[in-house]
Specification:
Helix content is 84%, strand content 0%. The chain is mainly α.
């Protein structure tokens, strides 16, 4: 039988009761949720410009590397001797 689990629950309940009586403290779980939500928003805001830059670089690479007319003429010469 595990005794530490009821002790932990009692500790959590006592800590929440002490926090409920205090006017100047914030519950740690609420603070963690706020920080996590802020991090998710920041990551989302950061990833949009990164993805747009990646897409622009990909488009530029395709335009600069792939010369469709030249590729067609070279392949046409090999396929139709």
């Amino acid at each position: 039988v595990e005794i530490t689990s009821p002790i932990r629950r009692a500790h959590v309940i006592l800590r929440k009761a002490a926090l409920a009586q205090s006017e100047n403290t914030m519950e740690l779980n609420v603070l963690k949720q706020v920080v996590e939500e802020d991090r998710k928003r920041w990551t989302g805001c950061f990833m949009l410009p990164v993805m747009l830059l990646f897409f622009a670089l990909y488009c530029a690479t395709v335009v600069l590397i792939e010369d469709v007319t030249k590729s067609h003429l070279i392949n046409y010469a090999f396929r139709h001797p």
